[in-house]
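Batch job 17 of 40 flagged for manual review because the log was empty.
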Amino acid sequence: MFKRKKKAENSLEGLTVPQHVAIILDGNGRWAKKRGLPRNLGHAQGFATVEKTVFHAADLGIKYLTVYGFSTENWKRPEEEVTGLMNLFRKYMKRLLKTALENDARVLMIGERSRFPQDIIDGINELEEKTKQNSRITFTIAINYGGRDEITRAVNKLIAEAKDGSLTGDVTEEVISKHLDTKLIPDPDLVIRTSGEQRLSNYLIWQSAYAELYFTDVLWPDFSKDDLIEAVRYYSSRDRRFGGLSKK
């Protein structure tokens, strides 16, 4: 675990770039409060930062970027804030489709989408379908997502398959992984959390078993390409052993 202390040099020369970066987008509300603005204006700025970060990541050679947009627990927030977030999703999905098509980005959504209004579900389906052939970067948004909920749903799928006879053989880690929402993407190499908090908050808890964890005090709306580069520099400095012996 690492906490940001200094600004990065804008260079990746000689560094190992992670294939998959996952980000916990934290600090939108605090960003707005510092400026005397409503929380939903902080979320709007956060969406703009997400859009920029997708293409910064692609420029750096990162092939998969996954962000935590809305958790299963976020429904507990005030109704006004949740409604504002739903309206931002609607607006953002339309803009994201255009920019994804222009920049060869594939878009995926993970999480239990059935709780969303039908127009949002339709927008998610359209995004996935119209960008499925794109290959420069795969951008995944976790919405109505929780790691425990994901694993629970995967277990229930396995139980159903066992009952109808379609599940054969032992339940292995690989079998479980293929029943998770993230079956189309590799596990994250690096998990970044902004705003100074140091926990995973139920995010990709199965997939992050061997991920490097990087924490920065930067509030999400202020997160820049330099901040992403600094996280990559930290990742490149790590000795990733996956339970084995050091190669250094």
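Reviewer: the log was empty due to a logging misconfiguration, but the result itself is present. The chain has one domain: 20-234. Unflagging and moving on to job 18.
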